[in-house]
Structures are given as structure tokens and as C-alpha cells.
Amino acid sequence: MKSLTSMTLIKVGQSRKGASTVEFLIILPLFILLALVLWQLVLAGVAVMNTQAALRDAARVAATTGDEKKAEEVGRESFGKSSQFKLKGLKVEIENEEVTVSAKTEINMIFMKNMKPMSYSDRAEAPVLKAYSGAYGMIGEAGGPLLTEGGILGPPIGVWKKTSGFGYRVHPVTGRLKKHTGLDLGAPHLTPIYAAEAGVVTRAGASNGYGNLIVIDHGNGLVTRYAHMKRSSIYVRVGDRVSRGQHIAGVGSEGVGTGAHLHFEVMYNGVFVNPEKYVNRSMVARN
Ligand SMILES: [Zn+2]
Prior knowledge:
Blueprint lengths: L1 H64 L2 H12 L5 E11 L2 E10 L10 E10 L33 E4 L2 E4 L6 E4 L2 E4 L5 E3 L4 E9 L3 E9 L2 E6 L13 E2 L4 E4 L10 E8 L2 E3 L1 H4 L2 H4 L3
Antiparallel strand pairs: 1-2, 2-3, 4-7, 5-6, 7-14, 8-13, 9-10, 9-12, 10-11, 11-14, 14-15
GO molecular function, one term: metalloendopeptidase activity
Keywords: Signal
């Protein structure tokens, strides 16, 4: 009786074990398949994002420089590199003041090497921004405005110490988290401030929070702003046409609780952008 019970138990145990092995054998491949499908979807998602970045940057460069080749180069750079997907075609065409960028990306099928890769195509369009001509002067040297990143603006001061970068930070005076819309370049009082590019002065005087503020419009949506100088050390007036490198003011500490520095801002199409991307890199490195 005793041995019969234990034998039954063994049988039950064995059959249980058998069943779970079968379940496992069915479920494991399903899980692997699901993981592969998910991985494939993630890859496709990243490929689409990279393609969009390439389209956007190529369109931006073409619209602002009119240079198809350069736009294609920048687009390819924005796409980046991957062993799983490739930018098969990126074409930039400018016709009748309109930019058209088309891109095609191929994404490898990770679990079926012999299968044809997935492909994704899209296009972007943008109007060519009119070259800024005449009295304002050209931005860039080749006769076209170069509003791309990578050091087109001249240094706003000669030698400085970067005391605060662009982006979110805890405000040194209020202690609150706040977006810092410019780059702080520490330098002694009256250190010359230079126009980062040729343009027209659209503002030169008192401004809340800035102490005093100089704004220079360079055309094509590019504006630079200089703050914290004393009223008496502003050497330009609204309407003045200034050249790149012109001595426009002296460093001060008006309107701030910290030491003497230039608060330098770059606006592109009405949006504050990181000045470090636009100012000549060899100059920004001095911090
Ligand atoms: Zn600042």
C-alpha cells in the first residue's frame, strides 16, 4: 500500500515534468521570435529617426546656404553610421527657390539574412532663404549666409573664462532651476566686446534682467545679443551698421549678482540656440 502510493506520486511527478518541458519547448521559441520582432521594430524606429534627422539637417543647410553638395554631406553626417541600416540615397535638389530633399534607408532583417532589407523613404521641402545682401553684409565668405553649426561667428571677446554654459541650471541668485539662454564669458570690466558678425544694431540700452543689452540682427533669422555692460560702455546705437569684429561695448556686471562677464546669446529664427555651436570652436575652447 505504501509503495503503491509512492509509485503513484512518482508517476504524477513525471507526467508534470513532461508537460512543463513541452510547454517550455513551445514557449521558448515564441519568446525568441517575439524578442527578434521587437528588436527589428526598434531598429526600424531608430532608422526612421536617423532618416528624419538627415532630411531635416540637409533641408536646413540647403535652405540657408544654397549648396546642394554641402547639404548632402551634413545630412549624411546627421544620419550617422550603423551596421544594421544604411542611408541608401540622400538627394538634395534646389529648383525655383525650393529645396527638396529625398532619402531612402534600408534596414537589415536581423533574423533572415537572405530576406530583402526593409526600406523607408521620405522627403522634406523647404523654401530657400533669400541671401542677405546689401548694407548688412553677407554672413560667411562665399557670398551666401552660412547659418550652420561649426564656428561661423567670430569671438565676442578675445580671451575669457566660460563661467556658465547654455541650458538649464540653478540660477546663482534666485536658486531656481531656469533655462540659461546664453553663454557667460567671464572677463575683466571693460574688456572689449566685438560684434560676432556684420549686421544692424536693433537694440542698445536698458533691458530687464540683462542690465543693458545690445542686439544685432545679421539677417536670415540670425541674431546675436550681448548683455550686462554699463550704459556708458555701449559704443553703438540702434540703426548702426556694424562689421564683424567691431568693438561695440565693454564688459560689465550690470543687472547681475555675479562678477563681470559678457552674457552672449545667439538666436536663430526666434529661438535661443547654444552659442558654443556657432562661435568659432578654437575660441570657445578657452575656458
Ligand atoms: Zn548669462
